[in-house]
C-alpha cells in the first residue's frame, strides 16, 4: 500500500504541475495573439510581439504553437478569439492592494470568476481607480543569474544607464531591472547588443510603495494570488506587498 500511495501522490503532484504548465502555455499564447493583432505579425516591427515570443520560447512553448498564434492574431489563419484587456481592482488581507489583468473573450464570465476567487480567499473587490493609483506602469527586465553568470550589477548599470535604466534589484536568483515603459525596447536592445541574455522583458505595474508582511499574512496573500492566477482569463496579478527572504524561506 505504501508503494501505491507514494505512486498516487507522485501522480497527483505531476498532474498539478502539468495543469499549471498548460495554463501558463495558454496565457503566453494568448499574449502573442493579442500582440500580433495589435501590431502585426512582423517581429522586427512589433517589439511587443517580439518580447511575447521570446518569453514563450524561454518557457518552452513549441515553435509551431507560437507560429500559429501569430497567424491567428494577425488574421492570417482562422480561429483567433476577440480578446479584450480588462483590469479589476481589489484588496487582499492586511489591506494589500491588488490589480488583476485579464485577457478575455467574455467580460461577464471574467468578472464573475474573479469576484468569486477574490471573495472566497479573504479579499474584496474595489471600485475602479481606488487601487490603480498606487501603481506605476513600468518596463521590467529579468536577468537570470544562472544564464548570465558573468553579469554583475555594476555591468548592468554600465550598459543600461544610457538607455533608460532606473533601478536594479537583486532578487537572489535574478536581477530585476526597472525602467519607464517607453524605454523597455531600447534598454533590452542595449543588453542584447552587449551580450547579456535576459529572461523576460515586459511592461508591468510596479507599486509606488509596499506593505511588509509577516509569515501568516504572506501565506494568506499567496493563497489569494494563487486562486486568482489559476483562472483562465487572468494574465497577471500585481500587488503591493513585501516579504523578507527569511519569511519566504520559512514558507517554502
Q: What is the topological layout?
A:
Blueprint: H1 2-39, H2 47-58, H3 63-74, E1 84-91, E2 97-104, H4 107-119, E3 124-126, E4 135-144, H5 153-160, E5 165-170, E6 174-180, H6 184-193, E7 200-207, E8 211-212, H7 215-229, E9 234-239, E10 241-242, H8 245-251
Parallel strand pairs: 8-10
Antiparallel strand pairs: 1-2, 1-3, 2-9, 4-6, 4-7, 5-6
Overall description:
The strands form three sheets. Strands 3-1-2-9 form a four-stranded antiparallel β-sheet. The protein has a four-stranded antiparallel β-sheet with strand order 5-6-4-7. A two-stranded parallel sheet has the order 8-10. The protein has helices at 2-39, 47-58, 63-74, 107-119, 153-160, 184-193, 215-229, 245-251; strands at 84-91, 97-104, 124-126, 135-144, 165-170, 174-180, 200-207, 211-212, 234-239, 241-242. The chain is globular. Strand 5 (165-170) and strand 6 form a beta hairpin. It is of the alpha+beta class and 252 residues long. Helix 1 (2-39) runs parallel beside helix 3. Helix content is 46%, strand content 24%. The chain has eight helices and ten strands. Residues 1-14 have low confidence and may be disordered.
